[in-house]
Prior knowledge:
The protein has helices at 15-23, 27-38, 42-55, 75-88, 117-121, 136-152, 168-173, 196-201, 215-229, 254-271, 273-300, 302-316, 322-335; strands at residues 63-69, 93-99, 125-131, 157-161, 178-183, 204-207, 243-245. It has 338 residues and is α/β, with parallel strands linked by helices. The protein has a seven-stranded parallel β-sheet with strand order 3-2-4-1-5-6-7, with helices on both faces. Helix 9 (215-229) links the parallel strand 6 (204-207) and strand 7. Helix 1 (15-23) crosses helix 3 (42-55) and helix 12 (302-316) runs antiparallel to helix 13.
Amino acid sequence: MSGPYRPPPRPRPSVDALVAGLRGGDRAALGQAITLVESSLAAHEAQAQALLARLLPWTGGALRVGITGVPGAGKSTLLEHLGLRLVEAGHRVAVLAVDPSSGRTGGSILGDKTRMVRLGADPRAFIRPSPTGGTLGGVHRRTRETLLLCEAAGYDVVFVETVGVGQSETAVAEMVDTFVVLSLAGGGDELQGIKRGVLELAEVLCVHKADGENAAAAARAARAHEGALHYLRPTTPGWTTPVVCASALANLGIDTLWDAILAHRAHLDSTGALRARRQEQLRRWMWSLVEDGLRQALAAHPGVAAAAPVIEAQVLAGEETPLRGARGLLRAFFAAGG
């Protein structure tokens, strides 16, 4: 007895069809294109790169904004309120949420679509969780390529939201024009939960949930942040990082935050720093992909696979230094023409 009927898989759209769909503003085509660039299959990768090459003339026109914050800072809530305001003003808004990846499936596990229901339902907006694949290279490649697809599809404001943990903040800061850091007023320690390295990345700093009984604490936190930022070298030369207070739920400070983002973009434009920044981002992106490719080739090399257990055991037993162990693995790689 045969099993239940399963319809044959749908053929994947051609590059021509995807280009036409994206340029026509078809959100379904955009979703299909993103799925293609996220695929790890070699055949899909070749098609994805052909698609991206075709779309390059229509990329680069969006305002790219990264946003991070301490856990509970309300990133998604703020993004939804800001995004709704922007689409009402005539913008098309995309939100790419850099999620951690499931250890079993590699899929996105935060589910930002469920946290931005109103924005996600608006036809002028597009929300897409972007699984990292467990590596910073995954953040660089998948999210950056998704960003380019959104630009080619006509989205003129693209937000990249990080989970606020690990090193993903640096990876996201290196693919956007303006990096926004959200903080909260924390009982007595106004810099609570903000790492110095993240604070140094901030081009706009926002104290969120600054409403009701928390308004006074938020104002104190803003002053503390301004004092701390005074001692840090700004990421953007000639730019003083503004600190704004906002509350998405109380609808306070949202316009001020957006004005600060626009002011930073205007500063980049007026100084010529935008072009230089984006070129540097492309250079770093290319070399990060080179490094990822070399790591993959090294791990898959039969000579390295054969030598690794012995060399690892020697290093762990204290019989060999890590540097000499690493050089031994590299010799195994290059000896066989790796």
